[in-house]
Specification:
five-stranded parallel sheet; two-stranded antiparallel ribbon; 6 helices; about 40% helix; globular
Length: about 200
């Protein structure tokens, strides 16, 4: 049975347009594949561990900086628990609103926890970084109020999808399907544009 992990990066609940796009996609997938398992990770209610000094020390030990002591190992186990839940999924659905040109800090927190050597990526001096995930697919639903791809720089910069695309490549997720609703505010037909984005989300299923 295939498993989809839906990672909701918006705190806006029913008002979130990026989450609405993701739900539309997931509902369509469920209709087409009733046997599929879908789990939602709401980053704003999830009790994520802080990536503090102990966890950072544990991470650096993989690069030859010091060795893990008992405190570091206990901290590392928290990281492994969160990461294994991510790795166990076959497909990922992210809804990511743009915040100040980038991703919401809760999503960055989550990514900083799970992006670890030996878990999601490897490193060799000659080869550099390489992803450890294989045969995974990600669907990403981006929203922004004013920014749009190709718009004048006065409407913002994209450290949003650019960051996510870099991260997917880092961890080895090579198949990424993107659906955008950008902009959602600076438009003459907000409702019509949302309807078109919802249609694209369903079509992606």
């Amino acid at each position: 049975m295939s498993k989809i992990l839906h990672i909701n990066a918006s705190p806006r609940g029913a008002k979130s347009q990026s989450a609405l796009l993701a739900r539309s996609y997931l509902e369509e997938r469920k209709q087409k594949q009733p046997e599929i398992q879908i789990e939602t990770l709401n980053l704003w209610s999830e009790n994520l561990p802080e990536f503090d000094g102990d966890k950072n020390a544990a991470k650096l030990s993989f690069f030859g900086v010091g060795e893990m002591d008992e405190v570091d190992r206990n901290a590392w186990e928290q990281v492994v628990d969160v990461t294994q839940k991510f790795v166990s999924a076959d497909e990922y659905v992210f809804n990511v609103p743009m915040w100040n040109g980038g991703v919401p800090y809760k999503l960055k927190h989550y990514i900083d926890i799970i992006t670890q050597p030996g878990l999601l990526f490897g490193f060799e001096p000659e080869r550099g970084y390489f992803g450890l995930l294989e045969n995974k697919i990600a669907h990403v639903f981006y929203s922004s109020g004013v920014f749009a791809p190709g718009a004048d720089r006065k409407y913002g910069e994209d450290f949003h999808s650019a960051y996510m695309e870099w991260w997917f490549g880092l961890v080895g997720i090579e198949q990424v399907v993107t659906t955008r609703h950008q902009p959602s505010l600076l438009t003459t037909d907000p409702e019509g544009d949302l309807d078109k984005a919802l249609a694209r989300a369903k079509a992606a299923a």
